[in-house]
Amino acid sequence: MYYKETSENTCEKGHGTAREQSGRRESDASDGVQNGSTCGWDNNTLHYTINREKITGTPGISSRTDGRDTNQERSISVAAGNEGMLLRKYLALGKNIFYSSAAMIYCAVEIKRPQQEKPKQGSLTIHCNEKYIQQELDKIFNRSKILPLETLSIIPKVAVISIKLDISVFHDKGGILEILTEGIYKTLMGITVEEEIYHQNKPHRISKSIKDLVQFYPTTVSCAVVNGSCLYDPTEEESQAASARMVITHTKNIGGETNKDRTGDILYWSFSGSMRYRDLQSTLKDALCIK
């Protein structure tokens, strides 16, 4: 489950908790394929806090209700566990929940036969209960080929890995796409699959970490222009009062951890409202950390 929130009555940087609930499935023996596989998650990688750095550029005079500078984003924290534990932690936030964006990601991994028309491809399916966010997630995670489906093949035409993510958005108080971009990426990075598949009476033992297959690290930045000032990571109220709004998702430079060929790509960009071209250009450069 994922949260981003700003604490009430504080002038410090906003803080948040982001949580993820992971499920587990094992496929049954069928169509001449037997397996004794384990599809799980490295929970140690799913307990962390992201202290989002300030956006490049000089901050303007801020009158934000949560005390942040105009170029300051809220931090995100992530935790994994069973649904009951996460719901208890969620409810323990009390009144702060009204200042938060919240979503839960259910993840299921399966070893199964591939589709007949795609015999050498696994699958990555992402479904969100909010249609307005589904299109953005499709562009960021499906059309961009963050996880090449060919790499999910175990035995061509026989067995592939199927990953399904079901997302429930509980609250959207601003910044929900930033949370889901980070949450889905970290969910994928935490999946491990240990397989022992019997095919034609022979065992096939394979170990896969999905993090080795992921091609890049996506990150989302949003901003809103309110009274002439560009506010990054706007709250719901700031977005409603804005004369212009922009959301951009791009690939982060993470050194040699994954394929660097795509570093710097813009995966998704949305703009609405009115803004001078020079200011829009400057805002884009700041969001992309281009000097």
UniProtKB/TrEMBL annotation:
Residues 1-38 are annotated as: Disordered. Residues 217-252 form the Exoribonuclease phosphorolytic domain. Its main location: cytoplasm. The keyword Cytoplasm applies. This is Exoribonuclease phosphorolytic domain-containing protein. One of its GO terms (cellular component) is cytoplasmic exosome (RNase complex). The keyword Manganese does not apply. It comes from the Eukaryota. Keywords: Cytoplasm. The lineage of its organism: Eukaryota, Fungi, Fungi incertae sedis, Microsporidia, Nematocida. InterPro entries: ExoRNase_PH_dom2 (IPR015847), ExoRNase_PH_dom2_sf (IPR036345), Exosome_comp_Rrp42_subfam (IPR050590), PNPase/RNase_PH_dom_sf (IPR027408), Ribosomal_Su5_D2-typ_SF (IPR020568). It is found in: Cytoplasm; Nucleus.
